[in-house]
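Private note to self, pasted from the team thread so I don't lose it. Backbone tokens:
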């Protein structure tokens, strides 16, 4: 590993503004060099096209894009960016103006960086076997839909995305990308804190997402595991904790979903014939709807979950779909009305969920304005006490647990 002396980088901030000495240093550096930057403001719009490390020495190493385009473009493998503050990208969506863009590369590392006032955060296209860790990423101070994505993986496989914080960004997206580990990240005040499309064999573990429109959404994907995540307070009328759309062979396990409009949303999943999704050992607590089924969704295995404090446990908004053709057993339901005479921890009678005629809001969104009001609560009570039409059977847990402690 070669080390490049950078005495000329100790110039004053005013001198630096006159010339892009950082780009000049990159140009002059032999492959494999380590550029250690002292505190100062460096001009952005730099390109790294060779194996190289740029490491900030202590606090106050700022790379300023001056509101023009992408601040740092990486087009080589074996590049490390560490301990930098990157600010002021351009604001062109069609050009994906970002703090850092990496393309056609592998074995790269971006860690301990702060990204602020950049439209897109880190944009990865065809990047493999790389590490993105311990970064703080925030977009420009504009409306939610006008922000860029905090972190994008596009055709990028076998990366580790660990302990990053995305705050006031738009989405973190994983599209056409496989075999990635997304672990211990945090997201707040975003739209989709984590969004997958056409992605497989990814591990999503121990992340925490709060105050977003959607926590985690899986779409057109397969063979992935989401375990130990906490999704809290997904906002808005359709705020969603974890969503599954056209996905197969997923494991959703040991997650906590609470204070969301919809806890777990299931849409035509599993999608591939003969496959299953496993939804097990989750805590689904204090949501407006614990589980929301849309379209034909059967052959899910829903076991050993704690479902408590929700306004509605099961919602099915599609007439004729087969909610009852999922394998549902050994869950704890706080509104189970049976007994456990033999003290084996399992209710003596099944827990059955029906849809009553009072639930007009399922098919008319305008009625939902009154959802949770005293008049709707009264209708719920009267409909269950003396239903004036035959209720629609939604599902049955034939072995409901009677204790939250398994």
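Design output:
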């Amino acid at each position: 590993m070669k080390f490049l002396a950078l005495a000329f980088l100790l110039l004053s901030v005013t001198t630096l503004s006159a010339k892009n000495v950082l780009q000049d240093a990159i140009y002059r550096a032999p492959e494999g060099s380590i550029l250690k930057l002292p505190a100062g403001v460096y001009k952005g719009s730099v390109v790294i096209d060779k194996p190289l490390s740029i490491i900030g020495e202590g606090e106050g190493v700022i790379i300023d894009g001056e509101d023009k385009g992408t601040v740092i473009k990486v087009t080589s493998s074996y590049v490390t960016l560490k301990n930098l503050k990157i600010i002021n990208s351009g604001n062109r969506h069609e050009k994906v103006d970002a703090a850092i863009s990496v393309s056609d590369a592998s074995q790269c590392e971006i860690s301990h960086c702060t990204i602020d006032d950049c439209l897109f955060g880190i944009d990865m296209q065809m990047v493999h076997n790389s590490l993105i860790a311990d970064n703080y990423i925030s977009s420009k101070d504009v409306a939610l839909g006008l922000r860029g994505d905090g972190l994008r993986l596009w055709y990028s496989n076998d990366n580790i995305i660990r302990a990053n914080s995305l705050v006031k960004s738009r989405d973190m997206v994983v599209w056409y990308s496989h075999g990635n580990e997304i672990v211990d990240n945090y997201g707040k005040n975003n739209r989709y804190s984590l969004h997958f499309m056409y992605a497989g064999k990814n591990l999503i573990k121990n992340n925490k997402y709060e105050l977003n429109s959607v926590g985690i959404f899986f779409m057109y994907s397969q063979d992935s595991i989401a375990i130990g995540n906490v999704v809290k307070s997904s906002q808005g009328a359709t705020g969603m904790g974890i969503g599954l759309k056209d996905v197969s062979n997923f494991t959703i396990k040991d997650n906590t979903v609470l204070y969301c409009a919809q806890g777990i949303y299931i849409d035509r999943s599993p999608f591939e014939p003969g496959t299953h999704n496993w939804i097990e050992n989750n805590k689904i607590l204090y949501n407006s709807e614990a589980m929301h089924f849309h379209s034909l969704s059967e052959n899910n295995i829903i076991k050993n979950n704690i479902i408590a404090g929700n306004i509605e446990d099961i919602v099915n908004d599609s007439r004729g779909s087969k909610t009852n053709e999922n394998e549902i057993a050994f869950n704890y339901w706080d509104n189970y009305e049976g007994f456990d005479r033999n003290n084996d921890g399992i209710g003596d009678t099944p827990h059955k969920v029906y849809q009553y005629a009072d639930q007009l809001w399922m098919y008319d969104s305008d009625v939902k304005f009154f959802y949770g009001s005293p008049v709707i609560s009264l209708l719920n009570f009267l409909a269950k006490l003396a239903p004036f039409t035959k209720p629609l059977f939604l599902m049955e847990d034939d072995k409901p647990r009677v204790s939250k402690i398994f």
